[in-house]
Amino acid sequence: MPKPSRDVQPIVLVTGPSGAGRTTAINVLEDLGFEAIDNLPLRLLPKLIDVQDSAAPMALGLDSRNRDFSPAGLLDMIDMLAARRSAELTVLYLDARAEILLRRYSETRRRHPLAPAETPEVGVAKELDLMAPIRERADMLLETSEMNVHQLKAEIEHWFAPGGRSLALSVQSFSYKRGVPRSVDLVFDCRFLANPYWKQELRHLNGRDAAVQAYVAEDPLYEGFLLRVTDMVQFLLPAFRREGKSHLSIAFGCTGGQHRSVTLAETLAKALAEDGQQVSIRHRELQS
């Protein structure tokens, strides 16, 4: 007797190196209504999917700690799930820089699962190398190096909250001295604007302060730059929605990540929110 037809089931496969936030992501998805299953052996996954009799969303946590884990095996499993017409698969990869992963292990004093008898440095290096092919296959890459638990939770909620799948916007500022954030879609360099750092009375303030915003806005290029960026973002939003994109990250960079980039991020986020968009904001250097 044929099985009754059912709706497409959303499946989020959450993976990434140990310490990047995978467990937190799984817990958040469970709170959002996903059936969460963590560290299930790869060989049991097809059977699990076959016995599902509903289209309820599912979150699967898989990483190098799985008993029968191998990059090739996980890639085969991803291809198998992606080919199923009854499933809508999203591979979510949580990533972080090696020094951040090492610091997190040092803080918890845990042994690394891939090097229980060696130093955490050895385990982190092994795992990043092992997970590289999976990272390349990911549908969504979330860089957590600069995030705390609450910020990671907010990001996951923006991507996967019910009703969600609406396009969530993240606007952030950063310093070019520390490099461009890895998980951003649109990057704008605002170092050509007048720098409040060189005004003694503004140096200790940041772009959330009215005096700094007023100083930056006095630059003759500011208004035209902000207008064009805002128009471009609003022009692109419908196209990103049609593509099925769930999250768009926009970043402004300046020399120190304190004045100009913060001003632009605050101003754009406010304009988008007033236009009815779902917007979160983060200032990387101010939160360090």
What's this entry about, in short?
The chain is α/β, with parallel strands linked by helices. It is built from nine helices and nine strands.
Describe the structure.
The structure is a single chain. The protein is α/β, with parallel strands linked by helices. It has 2 domains: 9-160, Rossmann fold; 168-283, no CATH class. It is built from 9 helices and 9 strands. The strands form 2 sheets. A 5-stranded parallel β-sheet has the order 2-3-1-4-5, with helices on both faces. It has a 4-stranded parallel β-sheet with strand order 7-8-6-9, with helices on both faces. Helix 2 links the parallel strand 2 and strand 3 (58-61). The N and C termini lie far apart (60 Å). Residues 1-6 have low confidence and may be disordered.
